[in-house]
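hey can u check if this looks right to u? its 269 residues, i copy pasted from the old doc so theres a chance i mangled smth
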Amino acid sequence: MPDKNVQNVEFAAPLWLNKNRKAFLQSRRIELLEKIEEFGSITKASKAAGMSYKGAWDAVNSMNNLADKPLTLNVTGGRSGGGTSLTEEGRNLIRMFRLVEAQHQSALQSIGRTDDLDRVMNLMQRISMRLSAKNVFYGTVSSIKVENLLAEVCLELKSKHRIYSMITAESVETLGLESGEAAYAVIKASSVLIASDLLQGRFSARNLLHGRVVSIRTDMLMGEVVLDIGGGDTVVATVTSGGVLNLDIKEGDQACAVIDATQVIIGVA
């Protein structure tokens, strides 16, 4: 018996073709052209396609205006009183659209297969996250050490850097954290220190992320330093303008982001 709590998720997206930044073709318009081919009349075709006569007429005019060659041909007079038929260009357009539509649907179905669906949904969740913190890192929990009320969680990033966080043991349980599972490390830019020469100092901070300076911006009071730490990950630090000056660094230089483990927030999707 199927589980009623399981929700089947499927990807669905209508196919649109634009031309000159204007809507040219979509399934509803193609259906209208197919009905015109079947009935030889816009009046009958509009009814069969569930459209008003004016809507159908406007759609046909719009398509003809945007097409390189006419898609329909109006026939006047005769025993049947005239009508509308498709040109060879119109018939070719229907065949082309339906072929692309089939490929489009096939691609969506392949994405919807279990493994791909989980991967894509996780990616969409990561992209849609909105946080005030500038540093949000996605990684895998590599270790969890619990000692009384506190726990040390280690997250391995794409860059192979490891970020350590000190959180409560209760939070580990609440978040359902386990080694090998995906998680996020969230760090405010104001909690990141930048060091240009680690040989001249010792740091109690657990996290030392080495990278290359890719951006330095300053105003009268504050500055922002961005380090590329590899794997598509960057670290943003906000420091005083005086602090940036004292660092004596420029874009392209090597530097290190210093982050205390207590300033790292762990989250899960």
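The chain has two domains: 16-111, 129-267.
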